[in-house]
Amino acid sequence: MRIVFMGTPEFAVPSIKMLVENNYNVVAAVTQPDKPKGRGNKITPPPVKVYAEEKGIIVLQPEKIKTGEFFRQLEALKPDLFITVAYGRILPQDILELPPLGCINVHGSLLPKYRGAAPIQWAIINGEKKTGITTMYTDVGMDTGDMLLKREVEIPMDMTAGELHDCLSIVGAEVLKETLECLKNGSLKREKQIEEEATHAPMMTKETGSIDWSKSAFDIHNLVRGTSPWPGAYTKFCGCKLKICKTQLIEGDNRGCKPGTIIKKDKNGIIVACGDGVLNIVEIQPESCRKMTVEEYLCGHKVNEGDVIG
């Protein structure tokens, strides 16, 4: 099979690596253009491009995909199959119809739940106990195509989105390998998605991490986990933005305090009243500072029990 791989971030690298290591014929890698990154806005290539160039694979980085030029570039590659993993763009019908074996996508959820750009983060924010990987045939919708194989993954209560991302990227490559083996031996079966069961996972923004202390401790803990490492959960304290990097769910009564009230503070954390229950903050990042433990934070910042954050 002549395979064109389409993917952009680190999540996609284990999948293209699996193809290369299993001697699949990857004739090109399509990825998004290089973009500024970090405080210095240094132009940085996507992780898929870095890996593909290391392996001598042709790299295409179209600014726009709905052009005759890009269509002709793909057509000239004579692809049998497209594989997409977090490419970040919806392919038009004429491109999807190019390869005779279609286009297989690796998605980071148990479809039809969490269609969209941020399934990993929203699964954690919403307090799911499990998620997984689904391979599917791509159509022109947003993750609406027929499903192929699935694998479930448990989500521990303290797992962050970053940790789940790394886990699912490996599982995704494994499920893709199984999918291609089934494709080759003719055992691959399609299953239509039940539209009524679909949920959506919209793109994350910086505002997603804003903490509402009137919510339950459980919900806030999940927001902190689900926005780690980006965009990060945050609140206001003493007029400054304060990132909440790590929290613990603990037993305790909010004592009828206003949400956001600091009930207790010591080297083990800052316990804050929530709309329901209390939450222990254990890692924090003040504005324009590094991440630190609460013990370190209390050494240089005045915090009183009874203060209200948020």
Task: Tell me about this structure.
The chain has 310 residues and is of the alpha/beta class. It has eight helices and 15 strands. The strands form three sheets. The chain has a seven-stranded mixed beta sheet with strand order 5-2-1-6-7-8-9. Strand 12 and strand 13 form a beta hairpin. It is elongated and about 70 Å long. The relative contact order is 0.10. The mean pLDDT is 97.
Rg, alpha carbons: 22 Å
Overall helicity: 25-40%
Mean pLDDT: 97
User: If helices are DSSP runs of H or I spanning 4 or more residues, what is the number of helices?
Assistant: 8
Structural class category: alpha/beta
Main-sheet strand order equals 5-2-1-6-7-8-9
* Strand segment tally: 15
How much of the sequence lies in strands comes to: 25-35%
- Poorly predicted segments: none
Straight-line N-to-C gap: 56 Å
Query: Biggest sheet: strands, sense, closure?
Result: 7 strands, mixed
Structural shape: elongated
The H-and-E topology, N to C, reads as: EHEEEHEHEHEHEEHHEEEEEEH
Short description:
By secondary structure, the protein is an alpha/beta fold. It contains eight helices and 15 strands.
Fill in the keyword field for this structure.
310 residues, alpha/beta, 7-stranded mixed β-sheet, 6-stranded antiparallel β-sheet, 15 strands, 25% helix
Question: Which SSEs are present, and which pair or pack?
Answer:
Blueprint: E1 2-7, H1 13-21, E2 25-30, E3 35-37, E4 42-44, H2 47-54, E5 59-60, H3 68-76, E6 81-85, H4 93-96, E7 103-107, H5 119-125, E8 130-137, E9 147-154, H6 161-185, H7 217-226, E10 233-237, E11 240-249, E12 262-266, E13 269-273, E14 278-286, E15 292-293, H8 294-300
Parallel strand pairs: 1-2, 1-6, 2-5, 6-7
Antiparallel strand pairs: 3-4, 7-8, 8-9, 10-11, 11-14, 12-13, 13-14, 14-15
Helix pairs in contact: 1-6, 5-7
